[in-house]
Amino acid sequence: FGVKAGCFPLHIWLPKAHPVAPAPASALLSGILTKAGVFGIIVITGALFFSDGNWGLLLTALGLVTMFLGALLALLSVNLKRTLACSSISQIGFILTGIGMAVLLACVGEKNSLAVRGTLLHMVNHSLFKLVLFLCAGAVYMNLHKLDLNEIRGFGRRKPALGFCFLMGSLGIGGIPLWSGYVSKTLLHESMVEYAKAVGEGAVVLGNQGMPSAFAGMPGIITALLLNPGVWKAAEWVFLLTGGMTVAYMLKLFIALFVEKHPANQEAYDAMSASYMKPLSRFVLVGCSALIPLLGMTPHLTMDRIAGAGEAFFQGDGLAHSMAYFSPENLKGGAISIGIGIVFYVAVVRGLLMKRSDGGEAVYADRLPSWLDLENLLYRPLLLRI
């Protein structure tokens, strides 16, 4: 199930499969196939490991590594579909973290509904985001037969429908307030805050050995990690940092496609404004894109009902009170990620990940280090030795 979901360290197939797959296949691959892997993990978790603190810690750790690594790979990529594929890895990390937090909250006697609802909603959200974004990428590829950012830059100028759709997907996956991704990411973030607060204040249900019954018999180092509020504060910052990196790489894609101009082919790209997409395709894509802000602006009317419909399946215990999604405290998390994203874009993308071409133009440079490719670093040498 981890392979199918794209979880670290079994994620290596995703960045290689998406760039060569047709756009509709990429949308299904990211929206449905990876969720089948997540669904399997949820089923196993609920049936066998829901009271196992070791399992909750493992899933949370894998989720944090997966979300950060996927965002880093996306930030370094200069291929449109590869960037979106690495983004899928990162978003699967958010979902795995939610599953892990649902287990851990239940282990310490706290309500786990925030984590459960955030997990389920982010699964739905990510499917919708990637449906829109991969079909937008397909529209680019079908017209240009190219995916390199340096070759497709400026294609989206004077194409308002394509720009609207890509913007909705970008704002959604970036967790911007009033778009649906903000709702699911807020729930996941608050579940981490709630767990850290519970262990920090000692507000956990203790068993006979002076620790939560679910943690009894565990090695001391594992228990120390589970009950150390500093560890979970650090985990929260990994979550916020990764959210900022998501904003940065989506900002990179949007500016490359819709703001910058191609130094040689801009007039040809502008001439495609009327013919780059059929009217029916445009209507369907715009309709799907419009769902993202619609869901985000009506979370209690729409998203809470979606989450409530699936909550019992994942052993959620119900919200103690209605979630104030747009309270200053919850908006602060989104604002921090947005601020980090802007800093990353200016300092990292524009500062470190671009170079001057022979003609003096600023171009996107492929800075991906070889040690981040686990296939060539680990799996191929290991299999060749066997």
What this model shows, in words?
The protein has helices at 2-5, 13-17, 23-48, 53-76, 80-107, 113-144, 149-152, 160-173, 180-201, 220-226, 229-258, 266-270, 279-297, 299-311, 328-349, 374-385, and strands at residues 354-356, 362-364. By secondary structure, it is an all-alpha fold. It has one domain. Strands 1-2 form a two-stranded antiparallel ribbon. A hairpin with a 5-residue loop joins strand 1 (354-356) and strand 2. Helix 3 (23-48) packs antiparallel against helix 6. It is a multi-pass membrane protein. It is found in: Cell membrane; Membrane. Its main location: membrane. One of its GO terms (molecular function) is oxidoreductase activity.
Tell me briefly what this model is:
The chain has 16 helices and 2 strands. With 386 residues, the protein is mostly helical.
Topology:
Blueprint: H1 2-5, H2 13-17, H3 23-48, H4 53-76, H5 80-107, H6 113-144, H7 149-152, H8 160-173, H9 180-201, H10 220-226, H11 229-258, H12 266-270, H13 279-297, H14 299-311, H15 328-349, E1 354-356, E2 362-364, H16 374-385
Antiparallel strand pairs: 1-2
Helix pairs in contact: 3-5, 3-6, 4-5, 4-11, 5-6, 5-9, 5-11, 6-8, 6-9, 6-13, 6-14, 8-11, 8-13, 9-11, 9-13, 9-15, 11-15
